[in-house]
């Protein structure tokens, strides 16, 4: 049964075949070290996904540039129609007239419509009617994008930078810890840790599911130390620090939880390589009672002290 | 197996180590008595989450203040450019001119644009084009925030203020009751009760999962009495009222359900301390038939009567 | 085990205690015959839920009336300030002036702002600035409400009006059928049927879970006949038509599915009373092959023919 | 137990009764070959669903046509009221006057409101107030629709065009492969394959669940080859290529996953008919190491090479 489960977990989509020395399947930030090529543009394309996941600075940059370009475009059209079809323009030079057209376009696309300058005649009116409609649709789109950006579950689990091997009961354990730095509550938090090591005789890799002291917690308001006890059943049993480095070990961590703030499930991933694992250190306790509350000092998440191993 | 499950439930993220006398892990409203410090500002920050969960009065207050400040800001800019670049202004005194600029700003940012006052010249036009764009984006944001605020599942389960020990079949039971006061239907309602008590010999705490008469109901249109039968398997077996007070007992309640109105899962939490537990009282029946309907009197949720215990 | 499950299902929040003769727990449309009284107004209140679930006619009615009243309100304020503070008004009589104020208000709250009439002076400008802001917020709210109304999973499962007792293999079965009349696909459809009957010796009711031939289907593109085989294990075994009427039987149906269109889970409920159950009828087949497609005639959902029972 | 599961899977809503020769239950794109007729218009109707799932070209076409028609409608009303009730109109001929009314309508419904033309008098003002309100509501609707269109999980799993029978360990296996061409991560991907074959003696069909080498992967960043080992337990055991063609075999594939980008579950379906199954071919390996990353060449998804079967 245990073997079966390991078998099933084997590979799990990360490719056991070409993962040779020095390869990290999962980056620390949870992204995969996998690229895909030769995807037709249309299949790859996900307009909304890109606009919702890009950085804020880039998102606002795109909006501002788009606003500028669209106004340039319409200003050119109004100029071609002739500014005499815009009432109230006071520009004398061609540049001033183009500027009048430009700002008239801006007043139209935002549906501001001061009316000091207004379209006169069929052509100018048609363009203005189209532009104002376009403005409304663009704005509808921006509303959706802003909501899409904000309403995404915004969970940034913070993992300790390093994992440790520390005493656990009368054996040792593989440990790391994590905290939710934000105000949103995470509930029914489930964690899954697996170990990927190179096979002795080939470039292929084996994947093992690591049994945890506690796989799921109902609440997660505090700091949580994940422990894999290195007992006789553990794939890490009798492996030394050097063995793990030679086998190019990677510990792959996947967390699943329910985010009460967005009412959506959230996932988080990270990994530890053999050289991020410290032997004979233990995490220091980060919580203390204060005014009837338990206070957790998140700044201590990476603090360890030396300890003798069993 | 049972022991295993209790073991797993142990701590569940609430910290078994420093929970000494008089400590309440979970407040009555379901928040945790845990604070986290030393979190970098950027990690802690969740702009949308704050704006969506703050009180309505504060939310509208922020909007109004923001509207006022932004208009002050732009009015100052227009004044610096000079009100002579705004056509149609009729203000004579500097204050009147500033007011004209202020209201022109308000008409621009809301894209109202009466046009009695309108920008003339490059500088004023540029500022107005930027302001109207900013107005649209702010408004897009407000739309998203309002929707985010409203669309959150808004479930306020009402729990009885007190729990009781009352006869149940030929033994006694730990009981409390709950009702959904709102119109939205809750389906597949699951409840979980655990008991946290101080250990005899230390400051540490033990957590026990309490077996319930009924752990899940498919519908929840009425009032529901939760019963933990105190049989020989119960961690409360042979514990007296005084024992629970000495052991600083806390009953931690967690409810999970599907909210048909929002099509989302919802969670609710509360807790009872030993001094909110009343021995030898039972809840009076709150439902009666009326015109072919079952009528539940929610006002009776806390009403109990004295009863002899088994 | 089986008994245990029935036990658990017992009551399921529908109240087994006061359900006497002629009582229907669940209406045909899936609503509950349960009312709750004495709920404080603030707890009961769910503004968004009400506005999102009310009928379209009522929703639009509210918007139109609200628009009218708000404009009356602001028109009165502008009139009190004096129409001389609105430029360009051409009204002579008090009524005409009030009308000018009214339409000026409408042009302001929609951020239309023609500017033929525009505010002049501090008081009128302040009111207009507030009104346009209010307009934007109301409109943001309306956007959210419209989206909330539309994005709700809109699944209307259609159940056969009657249930039947028909031959099934070499015994008989309790049967009804259902279809999804809409274009959205329902996946992983799960159905649950239970029988509620009066106890012989009291007003109380028993609830039994009915075993089904097939409890779950992965796809539901066609019409589905639900069958409970009346074998020796069935709570309906040896019960006659008359028995079910005397016991005031109610068959409670609950369906759960994943709605691919909204990517949300959906639930549907209905019930059959003993007098909606027809003995010795069977549903006629409603599907036939046409041009390489299977064609399901939804209009036949209630069509049955007489049949001899086993 | 295994038999039981097959039994349960039997039919799964696809209609086992009239599926005779040459019938394909599930199209390659995952739609069903099933139509439903005689559905009352009101039950079938799902306005939002239609507007959200139609093609972009059609969606924008509808908006543009709608905008044009609504303006024609209001222009006609304003013309009937008389353009003399619109100030500032400069049209001389009836056509020019109608055009003025048309563009005035466009400026009103978009809440642009230049004000060069503005309503005067009760009738024109009432119509304009109604039109601007209608404009806001339509725009709110468009915002919701655009968001609804964009926020839908947009997952297009790409399946290999053909399935193959290739050696697997010391037997053979039924195989096909799939890839997620988009940037969004799919997690907890579960796959289900079943085989539908005609019965020997009738028009009816049998459905069998196919056991897979791996039914679920936690991550899916790469290409995944699904393998059903044809061992003694397999319903394909001892069936030849010809047998499958005669039995009109259809392999029905259903995939379920969690889409991290939208935080929603997604489903995907496809099918392979017997003539899309190639014997003695195997998929060539599509991944290689490059700069410390694994590179998957999606263009190779259909590439196979000949191989001897066991």
TrEMBL record, chains A, B, C, D:
Location relative to the cell: Membrane
Swiss-Prot/TrEMBL keywords: Ion channel, Ion transport, Membrane, Potassium, Potassium transport, Transmembrane, Transmembrane helix, Transport, Voltage-gated channel
Superkingdom in the source lineage: Bacteria
Residue span(s) of domain Inward rectifier potassium channel C-terminal: 157-308
Bilayer topology: Multi-pass membrane protein
Domain Potassium channel: 69-146
Transmembrane segments: 59-81, 122-148
Matches recorded under InterPro entries: Ig_E-set, IRK_C, K_chnl_dom, K_chnl_inward-rec_Kir, K_chnl_inward-rec_Kir_cyto
GO BP terms, alphabetized: monoatomic ion transmembrane transport
Protein name: Inward rectifier potassium channel Irk
Gene name, Swiss-Prot/TrEMBL: irk
């Amino acid at each position: 049964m245990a073997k079966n489960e390991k078998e099933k977990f084997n590979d799990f989509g990360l490719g056991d075949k070409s993962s040779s020395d020095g390869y990290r399947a999962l980056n620390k930030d949870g992204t995969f070290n996998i690229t895909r090529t030769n995807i037709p543009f249309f299949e790859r394309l996900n307009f909304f996904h890109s606009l919702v996941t890009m950085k804020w600075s880039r998102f606002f940059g795109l909006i501002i540039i788009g606003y500028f370009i669209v106004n340039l475009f319409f200003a050119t059209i109004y100029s071609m129609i002739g500014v005499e079809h815009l009432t109230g323009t006071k520009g004398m030079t061609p540049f001033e007239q183009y500027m009048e057209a430009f700002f008239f376009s801006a007043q139209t696309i935002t549906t501001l419509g001061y009316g000091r300058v207004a379209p006169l005649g069929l052509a100018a009116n048609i363009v203005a009617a189209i532009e104002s409609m376009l403005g409304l649709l663009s704005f509808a789109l921006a509303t959706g994008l802003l909501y899409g950006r904000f309403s995404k579950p915004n969970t940034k689990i913070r993992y300790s930078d390093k994992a440790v091997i520390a005493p656990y009961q009368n054996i040792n354990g593989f440990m790391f810890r994590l905290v939710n730095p934000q105000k949103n509550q995470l509930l029914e938090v489930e964690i899954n840790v697996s170990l990927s090591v190179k096979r002795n005789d080939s470039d292929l890799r084996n994947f093992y599911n690591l049994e945890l002291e506690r796989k799921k917690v109902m609440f997660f308001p505090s700091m949580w130390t994940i422990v894999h006890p290195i007992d006789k059943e553990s794939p890490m049993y009798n492996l030394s620090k050097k063995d793990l480095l030679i086998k190019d070990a990677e510990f792959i961590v996947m967390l699943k939880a329910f985010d009460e703030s967005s009412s959506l499930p959230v996932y988080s991933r990270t990994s530890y390589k053999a050289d991020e694992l410290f032997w004979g250190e233990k995490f220091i306790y980060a919580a203390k009672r204060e005014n009837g509350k338990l206070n957790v000092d998140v700044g201590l998440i990476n603090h360890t002290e030396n300890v003798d191993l069993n």
